[in-house]
Write a structure and sequence with these properties.
Order of helices and strands of chain B: HEEH
Number of domains of chain A: 2
Strand content of chain B: 5-15%
Oligomer: heterodimer
Number of helices of chain A: 6
Shape of chain A: elongated
Strand content of chain A: under 5%
Strand order of the largest sheet of chain B: 1-2
Largest interface: A-B, 34 and 33 residues
Number of strands of chain A: 0
Radius of gyration of chain A: 34 Å
Helix content of chain B: 40-55%
Structural class of chain B: mainly alpha
Distance between the termini of chain B: 37 Å
Largest sheet of chain A: none
Order of helices and strands of chain A: HHHHHH
Shape of chain B: elongated
Radius of gyration of chain B: 26 Å
Largest sheet of chain B: 2 strands, antiparallel
Helix content of chain A: 55-70%
Structural class of chain A: mainly alpha
Number of strands of chain B: 2
C-alpha cells in the first residue's frame, strides 16, 4: 500500500511514487505525507521554488538554479583542469610525434630491407651482419615508436579541454 | 628541465651508445676473423680482398637488446618530459624596457 511508503522530505511528495493513491482515497489519507521542505529541495532540484525575495519571475529558471548550485558547491574538477597546462607549444609532444613516426617507419623499412638483403649476398657484411642488426633492432623500433605514439595520444586525451 | 627527465634521457642515450658500441665491436671482431674455405663445412663463402673466406652465422648477442632498451628509455624520457612540462617560464624578461617611465 501507498500508506506504508515513506516520502523523502527533501522533495515534493507530489512527484514521488505512491502520492496519487494516497491523495485519491488511500486508507491513511494524506496525513502520512510529511510536509515538503523547499529549503532542502532547492539544492537537490535546483531553484524551482520562488526565491528568497519572493520574485515569482525566477520560478523554475534553470539558469538561475544552476548558478545557485554552482555558487554553493564548488566544481570539483576545476582545480585539476586549471593545474594541468595545455599541450599547445609543448616541445616534448612535438619531439614525441617525430620520434614515434621515425621509429615506426624505420622499423617497418628495416623489415622490408631484411627481406631484400636476404636475396642478395654481395659481401659478408650485407649478407650476415646487416640483417642481424636490422632483425635485432626492428622490433625495438616498432614497439618503442608504437608506445610513444600511444603515449602522446593518451596525453592529448587526458589534457583535452572542450572549446568554450 | 625536470631532473628525472634528464636522468632518463641520459640513461637512454648511454644505454644506446653502449649497445651500439658492443655491436660494433662484435661485428668488427667477427668480420676480421674469417674462416678459410673448407669443403666439409656448410659455411657460406665470400670474396674479401680477392681471396675466398667463409663465416659462421653472425650472432649479435645482447648488444642489440641493450641498444633497444636505450631507445625505450629515450622514448620514456620524452613522455615524462611532456607530462611534467609546465609551459614557458612566466615573468622572465630578457631586457628591461628603456622607454619605460622611471618613478
Amino acid at each position: 500500500m501507498a500508506s506504508d511508503k515513506e516520502f523523502d522530505p527533501r522533495f515534493d511528495p507530489a512527484f514521488q511514487r505512491g502520492f496519487e493513491s494516497v491523495g485519491l482515497g488511500g486508507s491513511s489519507g494524506p496525513a502520512n505525507v510529511p510536509p515538503h521542505d523547499p529549503a532542502s529541495s532547492s539544492l537537490a532540484l535546483g531553484n524551482l521554488e520562488p526565491g528568497a525575495d519572493g520574485d515569482p519571475s525566477r520560478l523554475g529558471d534553470p539558469l538561475n538554479a544552476a548558478a545557485g548550485v554552482e555558487a554553493t558547491t564548488p566544481a570539483f574538477d576545476e582545480p585539476a583542469r586549471a593545474s594541468a597546462p595545455s599541450l599547445v607549444g609543448n616541445p616534448w609532444v612535438r619531439a614525441l610525434w617525430i620520434l614515434s613516426t621515425t621509429f615506426l617507419l624505420t622499423g617497418l623499412l628495416s623489415e622490408v630491407w631484411i627481406a631484400l638483403l636476404s636475396t642478395s649476398n654481395t659481401n659478408a657484411f650485407e649478407a650476415l651482419v646487416l640483417p642481424a642488426l636490422l632483425q635485432g633492432l626492428a622490433p625495438w623500433l616498432m614497439l618503442t615508436g608504437l608506445a610513444a605514439g600511444v603515449g602522446v595520444v593518451f596525453l592529448h586525451a587526458v589534457r583535452w579541454r572542450p572549446h568554450p | 628541465m625536470n631532473r628525472a627527465v634528464v636522468l632518463l634521457l641520459g640513461a637512454g642515450v648511454l644505454l644506446f651508445g653502449i649497445g651500439a658500441g658492443m655491436f660494433a665491436f662484435t661485428a668488427v671482431d667477427y668480420l676480421s676473423n674469417p674462416y678459410g674455405v673448407d669443403s666439409f663445412t656448410a659455411r657460406r663463402v665470400y670474396r674479401v680482398d680477392d681471396r675466398l673466406v667463409s663465416y659462421d652465422e653472425f650472432a649479435a648477442g645482447s648488444s642489440l637488446k641493450v641498444a633497444g632498451a636505450g631507445l625505450a628509455l629515450v622514448a620514456g624520457a620524452l613522455v615524462l618530459g611532456a607530462v611534467t612540462w609546465r609551459g614557458p617560464i612566466r615573468g622572465a624578461r630578457a631586457e628591461p624596457d628603456p622607454t619605460a617611465p622611471v618613478y
